[in-house]
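TASK: fixed-backbone design
INPUT:
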């Protein structure tokens, strides 16, 4: 028997024969984004910055029956890393059948329905986003953005899938790869609801908390707007200011932050008058 299996037993060496649990789809999303199969087709690994070790600990607990230690890499020009590995030809062969292969970055395809069934696809997309995606807030106009990096062929399929569930996106070039961008506020938060409608089986805390805080702020502004005397005004408790906004042709314009509700209203009123806008 393989010495690796004796020392670190797999809970189920056939666990990746098919994706039939949410954690497997989530793992595969991470494998597509940050995973690597070495050229000898014997070893699979995921390298993550040490702050994201929790994800690798979760995978270890699901795949191995014993507490298999992670490798630790000290780097000089970037953050130190932890490394999760699978060194078993049978398991790696199953990952190959699920769409992975060496040097995949530029040509990786979106998984077929046979590889990842529809009911597990959101967990795959969550892993993909947490591995190779970003969420950002544009402070100038309080806009929000989601981006996912990948091969063009993968992103085109992902774009089509998101469109089918009502989320619009676009793809822009970033060197030899592409970036799928979600730019409209409603689409961004619909994407949040899609991948984080529940937090099972696992989430990367760093990205989940950043995304969730923006989502909660949106809900707070909506609820605050209902109690304001004026349309387009909401209170942001984090800065203790009233926010004034207008929407023109479905585009939101931020008019600034004000100490009082009346000041926010007057700024909005002046903007509408100066631009000859009677109705939004």
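OUTPUT:
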């Amino acid at each position: 028997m393989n010495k690796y299996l004796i020392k670190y037993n797999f809970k189920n060496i056939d666990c990746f024969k098919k994706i039939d649990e949410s954690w497997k789809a989530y793992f595969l999303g991470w494998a597509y984004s940050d995973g690597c199969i070495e050229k000898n087709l014997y070893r699979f690994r995921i390298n993550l910055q040490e702050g994201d070790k929790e994800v690798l600990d979760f995978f270890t607990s699901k795949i191995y029956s014993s507490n298999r230690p992670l490798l630790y890499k000290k780097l000089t020009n970037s953050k130190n890393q932890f490394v999760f590995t699978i060194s078993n030809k049978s398991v790696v062969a199953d990952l190959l059948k699920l769409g992975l292969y060496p040097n995949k970055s530029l040509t990786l395809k979106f998984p077929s329905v046979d590889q990842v069934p529809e009911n597990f696809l959101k967990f795959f997309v969550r892993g993909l986003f947490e591995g190779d995606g970003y969420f950002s807030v544009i402070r100038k106009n309080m806009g929000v953005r989601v981006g996912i990096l990948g091969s063009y062929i993968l992103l085109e399929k992902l774009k089509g899938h998101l469109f089918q569930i009502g989320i619009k996106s676009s793809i822009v070039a970033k060197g030899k790869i592409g970036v799928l961008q979600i730019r409209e506020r409603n689409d961004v938060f619909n994407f949040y609801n899609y991948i984080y409608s529940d937090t099972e089986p696992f989430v990367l805390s760093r990205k989940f908390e950043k995304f969730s805080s923006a989502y909660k702020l949106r809900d707070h502004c909506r609820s605050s707007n209902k109690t304001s005397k004026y349309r387009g005004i909401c209170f942001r408790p984090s800065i203790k200011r009233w926010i004034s906004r207008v929407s023109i042709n479905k585009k939101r314009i931020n008019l600034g932050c004000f100490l009082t509700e009346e000041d926010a209203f007057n700024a909005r009123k002046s903007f509408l008058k100066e631009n000859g806008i009677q109705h939004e």
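COMMENT: DSSP finds nine helices and eleven strands in the chain.
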